[in-house]
Design a protein that fits this description.
Strand content: 25-35%
Largest sheet: 6 strands, antiparallel
Helix content: 10-25%
Structural class: mainly beta
Strand order of the largest sheet: 1-2-3-10-5-8
CATH superfamily: Jelly Rolls
Number of domains: 1
Distance between the termini: 41 Å
Order of helices and strands: EEEEEEEEEEHHE
CATH topology: Jelly Rolls
Shape: globular
CATH class: Mainly Beta
């Protein structure tokens, strides 16, 4: 039998605090527009979660490309499909993930995603521990204009390692 212990205590008060983070469902995406390639809404950034995790809602327009096969050295990435069909690469093969499907990729695991369908697809992306992924999402559209050295530094800084 495996005994799992709780993490180290981080709150030492006696009465609790008012510190919850609420985000209404109709909050606009932080990056992109729904139905237009890829749009991302920041649900819980590492700043909000004190570095514990980062949670993002990703909206992939019809036939939207995602990142090519890659891995992360410091963060795990999990995918939960909310609606539509997202094509996920699990390191071995591509699978058509549908509403309710889940994929967890530990550090070092090869993965990729895209929307090959003719309709919008949405998923949750969870990164653990939390990492400052916001700059990565916000500057991806500009990376095509960067030099090879600038691109390499950007991907290295954001723990994004592509494979052929």
């Amino acid at each position: 039998m495996v005994c799992v212990s709780y993490p180290k205590q981080v709150y030492f008060g006696d009465g609790g605090e008012i510190n919850a983070h609420f985000l209404p469902a109709d909050t606009a995406p932080n990056v992109g527009e729904p139905g237009d390639g890829m749009a991302i809404r920041y649900l819980a950034t590492a700043d909000v979660t004190r570095g514990e995790f980062g949670l993002y809602r990703v909206m992939l327009g019809a036939k939207a490309d995602g990142p090519k096969t890659h891995f992360h050295r410091t963060i795990s990435e999990s995918f939960f499909i909310l609606n539509g069909t997202v094509r996920l690469f699990n390191g071995e093969k591509w699978v058509d993930a549908r509403e309710g499907d889940f994929l967890h990729v530990p550090q070092g695991g090869l993965h990729a995603f895209r929307n090959d369908s003719d309709t919008l697809a949405e998923m949750l992306l969870l990164f653990t521990p939390g990492a400052p992924r916001e700059e990565f999402f916000e500057k991806m559209s500009e990376i095509g204009n960067a030099t090879d050295a600038e691109r390499a530094e950007f991907f290295d800084r954001h723990d994004q390692y592509f494979v052929d």
